[in-house]
Design brief:
This protein is α/β, with parallel strands linked by helices. The protein has a single domain, classed as 2-Layer Sandwich (Transcription Regulator spoIIAA). Helix content is 42%, strand content 33%. The protein is built from five helices and six strands. Strands 1, 2, 3, 4, 5 and 6 form a six-stranded mixed β-sheet that branches. Strand 5, helix 4 and strand 6 form a beta-alpha-beta unit. The longest helix is centred in the N-terminal third of the chain and has 13 residues.
């Protein structure tokens, strides 16, 4: 698993992008969040995070996804920002759709392009 982090400055707002490559699982995702928070890379100046998983092999089931949702719900920063997920297959799209349905306070939404994800975060 590889993750690239990029800071974007759109219309005077900050958006963080995480692009995943290769096989990823629940531990890779939470470890990435832990890294961003521990190093103050993700902080209260950000409006949202774009998570690009198009080049990743997502090894996730509903149980692991529920663990991820619990992780996100316990940290208040994730309720203050928007979480866009760029997906390319139904097996990937289903998770942000379920997350948004079960926990709308987390503001998770799937997208197919970076531009659409950034526009939603800024809206």
């Amino acid at each position: 698993m590889k993750v690239d982090y990029t800071q974007y400055h759109y219309q005077s707002e900050f958006i963080l992008m995480r692009k995943f490559f290769g096989p990823i699982d629940i531990h890779d995702i939470t470890d990435s969040w832990d890294y961003l928070l521990a190093h103050n890379i993700l902080n209260d100046k950000h409006r949202g995070v774009i998570n690009d998983i198009r080049d990743a092999e997502l090894n996730m089931d509903i149980h692991n996804f529920q663990v991820l949702l619990a992780y996100l719900r316990k940290n208040t920063i994730f309720q203050e920002i928007k979480l866009a997920v760029i997906c390319d297959t139904p097996g990937k799209i289903i998770f942000p759709m379920i997350g948004n349905s079960l926990h709308p306070e987390l503001k998770i939404k799937p997208f197919s392009t970076l531009e659409a994800a950034a526009e939603w975060i800024l809206s």
